[in-house]
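Appendix B. Chain record.
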Amino acid sequence: MSIYNIVASTDEATVVAEYVPDSNAKSSKYQSEAELEREFIELLVSQGYEYLNIKSEKDLITNLRKQLEKLNNYQFTDNEWNRFFNEVIANANEGVVEKTRKIQTDHIQILNRDDGTTKNIYLIDKRNIHNNKLQVINQYTEPGGKYETRYDVTILVNGFPIVHVELKRRGVAIREAFNQIKRYQRDSFWAASGLFEYVHIFVISNGTHTKYYSNTTRNLHIKEQIKNERSNKKTSNSFEFTSFWADANNKIIPDLVDFTKTFFSKHTILNILTKYCVFTSENMLLVMRPYQIAATESILSRIIISTNYKKVGTIEAGGYIWHTTGSGKTLTSFKTAQLAASLPFIDKVLFVVDRKDLDYQTMKEYDRYEKGAANGNTSTRILQRQLEDRDEKGNYHEYKIIVTTIQKLDLFIRKNKQHDVYKKHVVIIFYECHRSQFGSMHQAIVKSFKNYHLFGFTGTPIFAVNSRPTNSLYRTTEQVFGERLHTYTIVDSINDGNVLPFRIDFINTIKKPDNVEDKLVSGIDYERALADPQRISEIVNYVLEHFDQKTKRSSFYTYTAKWEERDKYNPRKIIEKRETRRLAGFNSIFAADSIPMAIKYYKEFKKQIQEKNKDLIIATIFSFSPNEETENGLLPDEEFDVSSLEKSYRDFLEEAIKDYNETFNTNFDTSADKFENYYKDLSLRMKNREIDILIVVNMF
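Structure tokens predicted for this chain:
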């Protein structure tokens, strides 16, 4: 329940809070494809779309000119229009990628007028979305291309075909609609002036089931199928990666009638196209999923409402997002930071991560979503300069979104007891907020900043039931950040098909004596039993005997490995390298409870792998923090300084890293800089499936 009293509400949210299907509106009887199409168009018209009887390209271009003139309040001369159309809109050298970029990032184009002057022409209005005109056409015929084709239903935005809908009669699998769009792309979307290459989103439906996906999903699927036409492999551009629409409670909305009332409501489809699509630096159009949009809007709403209620600088001004691992939290947080930074009363957005490698990873992801959208920093000195809006030379430069670590931010605060930034209106977003935000660092941040909104993203929130005993005021995620604003759990993700389901095999290795009643005594016996060498040996033996089966080593797939290296022609330049590899199965992480246990397991794995002549690569990593008590008994930040490790632990770590160096021809050790680089290299090799078993203690 919200902590705010609702005085007035709006239905302009992109994702409806809770959708109750209209059972009377659904058709239970058999419907032909033509009847389904007619009903769909009638519903769109009732929602404010204009129906046009356009069947030819000539009429499509005439309408496009009319709508752009209306949007820009300008009348083209015939010469101006012909020039603008042929050079900008229907340039023969441009395809899907260039046309998508025109709508998403280059939507203001230059018109060279007949009198020699220039004028900005908006293709779409992203600031005032309801200035854009929504129209619907059906049975549009394209006589060009390889074959004459007729398209079902197309949504025009300012005259551009932006959303295409392919329908099948009830009872026919919607995969057929997906395949039909594939044929259109191959045979005719590019034909004539290529206006249908402006389509951003495809919707496929048989009335009962309705899904959507982006144009690059369809376009890359075609390319991959041509490249691998003899292969049956699934890719991220296959039908399996189409999406259902849903309400804010993650309840899917599959029926076409219900889908039309929600997804195709004017404010929703226009918000999706203008705010919740991300065209990446890799030329991929990402259409955010409903739970990502709902989370983003819940944060934006909290910022605005708490500001109006004068609650800025309190826990009521923030909240947290519980989105499971693999659900796209980085994209959600990027869009949140981007839209929050655009609010006129917000001075800065700080995106705070709790691991020293994550700020680098996050910056790479943010740069992928939009080059230069955020600013990273490699030191507290650079962070201070960015907070003060100064460039390297000391000149004014506004840094609106800053990505940093909680350690750098904490050090900045300790060095600057007074600073102007503390008075500014800031949004602070903590990524993976389940760990470090419970200690003194968090308290220092909220004590120093006066006008803040604090938000956390986590896949594993801490509730009272799973919190550790502590004397601190902060035990749970809610106590730190405020109320939960949106939830998307692993169950939701599995149900949606976004992540693979878990398979849990519980192997009991200890039988507790029936006559033990004292819990403390039981705990001592349990600890000793867990560390018993025979038990460790048998567990390692079980893992190795079942490793191929559990990690699907008989299944092969193609994976694109990515890494960075120095350009051999320009050593100061770092370039990203890619290599397509054919892999068998997956790799694994073995989590140990303590450093001594990790050491025992590493040695036993190494011994048995050699004895059994297994072709497996193992590695391990741990640092000082996992073995140390914290002031509040809570999990501390990961540290890359291993100087405080006991000598025996550090000596073992040196030996394990030596094994790693021999395997991968690297040169790491436990010194501060090299150990951090070891962590980064290890992370990358895990991601690229080069390590089979990684033994960890409270890391990763």
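Further analysis of this model is presented in Appendix C.
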